Amino acid sequence: MQQKFRDLTLTTKFLGSIALILLVLTFLDINYNARKERELTQNEIKRWTFRLAENVRVALNTLMREGKMDIRFSMLQTMQEELEGIKNVRIVRAERTNELFNEMNKKEVIPSLEKAIRRSMAEIPVLEEELSKAIDADLIDDLKDEIAELEKDLLGLRGKLGVAQEDIIADPRELPRDDMDLKVLKEGQPIYQFNGDFARVLVPYKVDRKKCSEGSGCHRNAREGDILGAINIEFSMETISADIRENKLWMVLFWFMRFIIFLVVIGLLLTFIVTRDIKSMLKVFKKVEKGDFSVRAEVRGKDEFGEMATAFNRMVQSLEDTKKELDKSLLEVFALYNIGKAVNTNFELEQILLSLVQGLGRSEKIDKTMIMLADKDSGLLSVASYTGFEDGEIGSTRRKPGEGFYGAVAAEGKGELVSDVEKYIDFPAEDIFGAEVNSIIAVPFFRGDSIFGLICAYKNKPDHFDLSDLKLFEGMAEHLTVVLNNAKLVEETRIKAIRDSLTGLYNRRYFNETLEKEYEKALRHERYLSLFMIDIDNFKYYNDTNGHPEGDKVLEELSEILRHTVRSTDIACRYGGEEFVVILPETSKDGAMLIGERVVSAIHRHTFAHEESQPMGFVSVSAGLATFPEDGETSDDIVKRADEALYRAKRLGKNRIEMA
N or C: which terminus of the chain has fewer CB atoms within 10 Å of its end residue's CB? Predict the structure, then answer.
């Protein structure tokens, strides 16, 4: 055997030696890669199950905030049925979770419900007393509806209180079932069990302030690091194992093919080519790893490395495009979030616009922002809010419709993109607002059918904005238009709720609420509070003689007189029918008498249509005045004494005001 080996040519010995070495290395490499593949597969399974557990946690938090935790078992059952290979998904709840829920009920939910019950119980007698005094049929119906609604709410609150007072007991399906369940709740570390084609994973849920919403149920009272429970995921690895076995076969074939190729190709040429291209690719990989998606691998040919470089370049381009889209989406979401937050807080236009520019200003994609508003009558544009600019760069900028860049955008009613102001020949220099500005986007937003203003964004780099950015801002402007229109509707609804539809004065309900507030203020600060009640003399005779439409005109004209005769601090209200009432805060009886006489005199001097048909030959009013604390200790006392003084004025000849 030795002699035969010695007789072989050097080439054969060399090739044989290399073949033996490669064969051994191939065998070892195949076994190593098989183990590594299983390890990587298990690690991927761990990452996949962890992401699944995180998705379940987010879903549970959402259900908790929306009060839909009773459907969590259905959700888990659906996941178990829909996800291939999943055999069992269940939640393991820690005892600490129930304690936190009970603690939250005792500290927050129960006191809040009890407070709401007491408030409702206090409001019902007040409404019942108003009902007993009410004369107007519509008012009686409204009061009855309010009382019924309060009683219904009270019943619901008591039901919720009963539920909140009961201790929360964990569902048996969520109790720990074995030692692994107990271990994960105790140690708070994930547990992974791989047994042949079966796998089981337990992922704990810890309180993490960075991930948990501050308002999410028990998380509000939990400590950082508290273990609230875990998710148990059991699944079959049969399909994965089959893929691994098939992959092993292909891997063996591949290695033997490479073994043959190594024998043929042997030499420095292959080493030189591989080493050079690998080093080149590694440099690019490291730059991408640091977040530089602008680099590209050099494509030196059409071989495997050339294809790899081409594929890598496509991947990096895709990542760069995805990042841009994500930046835009995050910008829109954040801006809309700030708008929504401002709307949920109030419907003030200033707050809505301020929230929008602040949201846009936090984006890395935008250096400066500005919002201009158009004057309702002239259409003149002026700056309302901005970020990123120095005060002197904008100042009191104004543009007429059609004037300059911004006026043209407003006049045409559609967005405009300027990717590079230096290449934009006709761009007015006075509209750049800063020497460093190079890219500009301006889009209009509307209220109804008329232009309301412009959203403007600026970038110091040229060619930074594209058409997708323009569409993004146009979509944002549409959202802002909807929000502003909704804000307008809410404001109109609010006004209708407190104003009398015929006269425009405040209504009876607003009077009752305001009188109580002013009374509390006068009582607390020991100050005067006056009010006088007004009733049109012989108004029924006027209506019967001239018709109700003419009577409505008298009410409207009298309300206008009242509105312009009393002070700006006084509150004029329509009390009902032909009765009016005026609240005079911090006004003594003598001061109130002067104002009341001025009102009665102004009405007497005014010329009303058909007034000659009245018994007195003109339209007049009688009024009664009362003052706290001289004429009563409560607000109801003041109203009663003013009403008595009013009817005394009627008896004494009308067209006058009497003090209580």
Answer: N
Domain membership of residue 272 (yes or no) is: no
DSSP-based three-state secondary structure for 166: coil
d(CA 426, CA 431): 11
Q: Are 484 and 520 in the same domain?
A: no
Q: What is the end-to-end Cα distance of the chain in Å, rounded? A: 137
Q: What is the pLDDT of residue 2?
A: 67
Confidence of residue 10 (pLDDT cuts 50, 70, 90): very low
**Same domain (yes/no): 486, 513:** no
Same domain flag for 62 and 118? yes
628: part of which helix (H) or strand (E)? Answer: strand 621-628
Predicted pLDDT of residue 654? 94
Segment 347-358, tens digit of pLDDT: 556 566 666 666
Q: Which of the listed residues 206, 235, 257 is the one where a domain comes to its end?
A: 257
Which has more confidence, 159 or 208? 159
Two tokens at 560?
Answer: 């206008």
| Whether residues 175 and 203 fall in one domain | yes
Cα gap 515→572, rounded to integer Å: 11
The CATH number of whichever domain residue 627 belongs to comes to: 3.30.70.270
Check whether residue 526 and residue 651 sit in a common domain.
yes
CB of 628 within 8 A of CB of 530? yes
Closest C-alpha among 404, 423, 477 to residue 445: 477
Looking at the chain, the whole-number percentage of residues with pLDDT higher than 70 is 82
CA dihedral 291, 292, 294, 296 (to 10 degrees): -100
d(CA 519, CA 631): 13
Question: What would the pLDDT profile of 462-504 be if each residue is shown by its tens digit?
Answer: 887 888 788 888 887 887 777 777 766 766 677 777 889 899 9
Within a domain: residue 290? no
Quick one: average pLDDT of 220-233? Answer: 78
In this prediction, residue 275 has a pLDDT band, given cuts at 50, 70 and 90, of low
Residues 531 and 473 in one domain: no
> Which helix (H) or strand (E) covers residue 233, if one does?
strand 227-236
Q: DSSP secondary structure string, 128-146?
A: HHHHHH---HHHHHHHHHH
Provide the domain count of the chain.
3
CATH of the domain at 470: 3.30.450.40
Report the C-alpha gap between 550 and 611 in whole angstroms. Answer: 11
Q: Are 513 and 571 in contact (CB under 8 A)?
A: no
For the chain, the maximum distance between any two Cα atoms, rounded to a whole number of angstroms, is 150
Q: Which domain holds residue 610?
A: 508-659
Phi, psi of 443 (to 5 degrees): -130, 140
> Which of 659, 567, 554 lies closest to 614 in space, CA to CA?
554
Model's pTM, two decimal places?
A: 0.37
Determine how β-strand 529-536 pairs with β-strand 368-374. Answer: unpaired
Phi-psi region of 81 (alpha: psi -120 to 50; beta: other; left: phi over 0): alpha
**What proportion of the chain, given as a percentage, has pLDDT over 90?**
24
